[in-house]
Amino acid sequence: MDNPLIQPILSILEACDKGISEFDLLRQLEHEAPIFDELGSDPDLKLFRKHFLIMNALYQLQRKLWQEDEVRLYISPLKIHFEAAVQIEESQSSEVEDGVEAKLAAYYLDWNEYDNTNAEDVAALLKGFYNKLFNRDDTNKALQLLGIKENATKTEIKRAYRLLVRNAHPDKGGDTKKFIKLRKAYEHLISQSYT
Fold first, then answer.
1. What φ, ψ does residue 40 adopt, rounded to 5°?
2. Which fold has domain 134-191?
3. Which of 48, 57, 71, 128 would be 65's cystine partner, CB 3.0–4.6 Å?
4. What is the rounded CA–CA span in Å between residue 117 and residue 165?
5. In the chain, count of helices (H) and strands (E)?
């Protein structure tokens, strides 16, 4: 099935000869693609669907351009742009079917992934992402360093941090390395879903 975003994406890429980030592409499409208004009410699921539709269109376009015109569409979150076949180094593969990129393409080209992903699935994906981002060991070390329990509130975290940082603050003759460790622990815990 052809993705309705292929034409708008081609127009945007045509206007951005140096490439565009996925975020900027998404922002432009939000103004130009009425399909985005019909993606549901759950904000996380809606964002997932926008992202999926964009990536699906990009990978469809990438395959078509390579097969029909020998032009490679380079896809990354930070920059999406065209590469002529002569720009691709000999050591690089010109096939979309290689490595990590092939796995991403296979995922985003499978409409079942789009159709079968619900709000609970997206919540689980996000939770998995944040769990990897904030390693459990790091959380335990941060809790231990600040001397607080796992269910501490933001207020308790701030209080514990302020008490400990008084003695470690470099302006008060404290140890700079200890101050930095305390600050990192504080930032880590505050950024978590503690209430």
1. 110, 175
2. Helix Hairpins (1.10.287)
3. 71
4. 45
5. 9, 2
